[in-house]
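[job 4417] fold queue: 2 targets
>>> target A
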Amino acid sequence: MAGLSFLPYLNISAFDNRIFFSGGSVTKARVKAIFAYPTPDEPNWPNIGYDFDGKIGEIRGLLSEKCPGIEFIPVSTMDGSAENGKKILNEDPDVEGYAVFHVGCLWGDLTETIASSGKPTVLVDHLYAGSGEFLTSYAAMKRAGHKVTGVSSSDFDDVAEAVNCFDCLHKLKESTILVVGSKADEQITNVYGTRLLDVSFEEMNNAYHNIDPGEAKEVAAGWIDGAEKVIEPTEAEIVKSASIYLAMKNLMQKHNAHAITINCLGGIYSGNLVEAYPCLGFMQLDNDGYVGACEADQRSAMTKLIMTCLAGRPGFISDPVIDTSKNQIIYAHCIGPTRVYGPDGPSNPYHIRSHSEDRKGACNRSLMPLGEMVTTLQFDHLKKQVIFHQGKSAENVDEDMACRTKLAVEVKGDISKLLNYWDQWGWHRVSFFGDLKEPVSHLASLMGFQVLEEA
């Protein structure tokens, strides 16, 4: 299965297996790292004579190690004035954001000036040294609605987690999503900088009919060999799914795209606009670190892309069902990733099934890990919000009704509250394995988004 990957990826740190995908060169986010501290010659926190230069050198070394996707432009300053803040802003106007390290309490309006620039800003406390200024400045900038997040932790991995959000934001601007059989939403590009490209059903079908049958049979054989069992589909049907996967792959290579979403149900139910279900192909793309998304759902495709860049893990789009008697939400769809922790993670079992609603074609039922934290969310570019809930995976539901993959999760929080937002947000949600609350919170703050906890 791993041999089906088609473009190189780069491992880049904040999480294990975190990746970015590119057919060409990978550029880095440019971030100004500002190290603010008072003179060590006078009494102050942490103490008179403190080696601020040594601490700054230590921080810079850790940034280089743990944030390799970012080019840092460092500046050290003992001037806390607003004028100095404006000077620093003017020195490198093309940077994508700022990381302000409160190495000591400098006081003044430097931090407020930087955080008010309109660009994403991470504020970091050096505990027992910069805490007073960090706490007051962060609270004021957050309350004022600026794109700011803060880290006050003795674990530098927490700092790297926040700072690496700049890398995610940069990669979104370098990414392309193909939208097949539907009109691309230009407002997504306006908010995230991600390019969305219309692709016609005709171009999709031309690519499908140009696939080498032998190559499609080889891919299908890999899926069949990897499956725990094949139930309804014939080998010929699975080969058709392999052909549309290879067609998607070729279109993505042609357009240097990192994600694809297809109006699959509209195309299939209307006749021959789509000639095979793309579900197994989406599974493969997700497993390889790319993004495949159902139903031309561009908001969910964007959510998957955001989290792939942030956490290196594929998302599971679903039509959820809620069972209050078990305190469970059941995520249901006719496709699911089988490497839920990313391309380098373990593979969970899957079955090859027919598509549920019409009992045709081929898809997969993914039997996902149980007893694990699952983070479910949706980014909305119009609301400037992220809707969010979490739970622990409890059961791979075996029920013939509705979609083939059905993951039941025990809700963390108030399940009755979870009934309240579907009219405003629609039915789809996107689930990711792991406790991703903190990185999502940091990223949302740097985007200027509000996180709405729906449970």
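>>> target B
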Amino acid sequence: MAVKLKLSRLGSKKHPFYRLVAANSETARNGRPLEYLGYYNPMTNPPVISLDKEKIQAWLDRGAEPTETFRSLMKKCPD
């Protein structure tokens, strides 16, 4: 079972809100995640990114692979 760190979309049409999650790679985008790692709200100015760095590092140590989008959000987060 490969674990991916990815985004799960919430919000209504044209008003997205994303949760950053750790999920099985075979799980659907909005399927049940293993753990919630933070959130990303692109609709505010500036966009709000909140990450739990300790949980993310724990998943990376266990061999989880972040998606490209997840990786770019980690770089943008000021923490």
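[job 4417] complete. Note on B: The radius of gyration is 12 Å.
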